[in-house]
Amino acid sequence: MKGFFRLLTTTQVRQILRSFPRLPGEEVPLNKALGRAVANDIVSPEDLPPFSRSTMDGYALRARDIFGASETEPALLKVVGEVRMGQAPGCGPIGPGEAVRIWTGGMVPEGADAVVMVEYTKELDKDLIEVYKAAAPNENMILKGEDCQKDKVCITRGKRLRPQDLGLLAGLGITKVKVVKSPRVFIISTGDEIVPETEVPEDGKVRDINSTTLEALVRQGKATVKRLGIVEDSFDSIYEKCREALDMGADVILVSGGSSVGARDFTLKVFEHLSGEPPLVHGVAVRPGKPTIISRFEDTALLGLPGHAASCMVVYMLFVQYLLNVMLGLDPETDMEFKRAVCGQIFPSVTGREDYVRVRLEDSKDGILPVAMPIYGKSGLISTLVKADGLLKIPRDSEGYHEGEEAEVMLLP
Amino acid sequence: MKGFFRLLTTTQVRQILRSFPRLPGEEVPLNKALGRAVANDIVSPEDLPPFSRSTMDGYALRARDIFGASETEPALLKVVGEVRMGQAPGCGPIGPGEAVRIWTGGMVPEGADAVVMVEYTKELDKDLIEVYKAAAPNENMILKGEDCQKDKVCITRGKRLRPQDLGLLAGLGITKVKVVKSPRVFIISTGDEIVPETEVPEDGKVRDINSTTLEALVRQGKATVKRLGIVEDSFDSIYEKCREALDMGADVILVSGGSSVGARDFTLKVFEHLSGEPPLVHGVAVRPGKPTIISRFEDTALLGLPGHAASCMVVYMLFVQYLLNVMLGLDPETDMEFKRAVCGQIFPSVTGREDYVRVRLEDSKDGILPVAMPIYGKSGLISTLVKADGLLKIPRDSEGYHEGEEAEVMLLP
């Protein structure tokens, strides 16, 4: 006998996904922190730079001493020394009419409040220069603490660390950083007809596609991933694999296939048995991707994904990545990139569900928005996603788009 | 004495970068191939799927036998067996008036050319069904070779492998793939004032920022990376480190700092000595980022990057990533993402150089284009990039943008 779905909308499903907790923090060295979310606000332990620095090769001096200096009326200054790179200035405070030679990055001595570029000076003798241009106070200097001030928050909780953020932390001497743990994701493929990609399938059998696609998606999504192989369509074998994943500390279990309501679909029963409850979600008002299951066992998310290759990936893009972002402490829509495009053809749909039509994006002649062209093909065909640049979204209340209308396209990785 | 630059435009510099060769191919397993460029066209060794499959639970039959079937005039068919999952159909060819039970993913037997969903049938007894709905030929089936045809190119040379591409390859039993090698990039920081991020700097010294930023950028750019530490500002020490990198098989050497034309800038001399020629580039008409050097030793690119943290990253984004993409066999502009934005303030510039102004992107009230707000700060400040979402590009022939004008923003990682 065939059952029925109670379809939830994307918004409803995402609200449920947001109820899963952010994972705890762990300390990692900077070279393992790229792309991870910061677990706590990071407070700067010191001023950066720790002293005022010159940004030019030239002379450090008092701005007021060269006020009004010009080609015709140069200021005359006494050179009282040279600041050697990587050393404290060897001189006392700079007094009226004095200057010191300085290099880019050098430490500006006390008393000086500007640097004049060497191009605007002329050495008259070893310790006398003419300056041809005025300088404003703080000109050609980076002030102590200008990049980052001691005791101020320099990176806020939840921020995803980018290369430049790591550079700032290195500059502050912060070589380890507390980031949110990566979810441990386990992938299980189900189906009596599925064999590993390393095997030559006999008649009636096909190779596993979803484990490979999902593994790469999860890895791209900054989670750690382990494939648990293929199991036959039976309650016991799916149940055992899920238990195995739970015993290994799974934060997310992805079961591909067997998520529908047919006689051979056991994923729902396994999830109900594990969680002791009906699923949080069974069926989403999205096409492709309807037969999707979400259950919860303690803090672990149990997800049943459609077996059809294209449906499986669409559900990943819409919901699994969202869930991983929640667990990772990131804005849940991180990496969901949308682009506006013009429909190159009619895109029919029906109301009551959101459609995600695989499209190729072509350059338009006028050069502004790209043109979206549909890629026809059943949701079981992985090649449609290989050809696609994105998924054109047709909202739930729309019957589709006419040629020439604008629409939103969710970019595929 | 101070020298002068001969500034090249972005277009000229990129043309020079395109003269570096694509690296050779290497065979890697699928789980190492994500994001890499395919070295050769990949030809499908077989049909995918290898046989026609059902996409529904139902009955496989001859479409012509249920032509015109409806609720009021059902068609009557004889059930001659069941196709077991993962097995060849146990029956002979389907003859007129015959049907076999089949499940989603099952192998459609010879003679059958459509599948009718179980919902549109009624079992009258063990081997007799009524069918209430007609089916078109090939309905609810994926045909043999419909996903991928034997001997056809399924992935073209130069394509960057995405999760779904790896899924397709797995489905075809292709478990190793020839991809373009990753460039080996070596990073050298120069400066008498620079200490490693693990040290507490004495007066006059600061910690290395660029090595950390560059390392993360290169890793994100799919190249392999090794930091060679910090060297003092002298010809000999920079030369030695460059030789060390060459001996280790460097495809790209990045030297940060010492790339300008001052008395303490030795990078140019080292590159000239190594290559035996003047540099291909010394000075780019870009701000920030002017003091950039590009030389070539055999097929290795030698790049001198500005020491100022923000300039260094801008040059990386505009040129180093471009070069890595050339070597990786990718479209050179891969990962250079631009977004249109509205200027939230006036953005002044001067003609003769391209400006890349660090900006924050804010949501606009009308919800269409984001609003770009400048982040003020000197090019030595890494914090400006920490705050920035992108770089607003002001073309070489423009004196800037007024508030409310549209501009292109290069997104930062």
Task: Write a brief structural summary.
The first copy, chain A, has seven helices and 28 strands.
Characterization of the model:
The structure is a homodimer of 413-residue chains. The first copy, chain A, is an alpha/beta fold. Chain A has 4 domains: 10-23 and 182-327, Molybdenum Cofactor Biosythetic Enzyme, Chain A (3-Layer(aba) Sandwich); 25-48 and 146-180, Alpha-Beta Complex (Molybdopterin biosynthesis moea protein, domain 2), CATH 3.90.105.10; 53-142, Molybdopterin biosynthesis moeA protein, domain 3; 338-411, MoeA, C-terminal, domain IV (Beta-clip). Helices cover 18% and strands 30% of the residues of chain A. The first copy, chain A, has 7 helices and 28 strands. In chain A, the strands form 8 sheets. In chain A, strands 7-4-6-5-9-8 form a 6-stranded mixed sheet, with no helix packed on it. A 6-stranded mixed sheet of chain A has the order 16-13-17-21-20-18, with helices on both faces. In chain A, strands 22-25-24-26-28 form a 5-stranded mixed β-barrel. The longest helix of chain A is centred in the last third of the chain and has 19 residues, at 309-327. The first copy, chain A, is elongated, with a radius of gyration of 31 Å. The two termini of chain A are 38 Å apart. At the A-B interface, helix 2, strand 15, helix 3 and helix 7 of A face helix 2, strand 15, helix 3 and helix 7 of B.
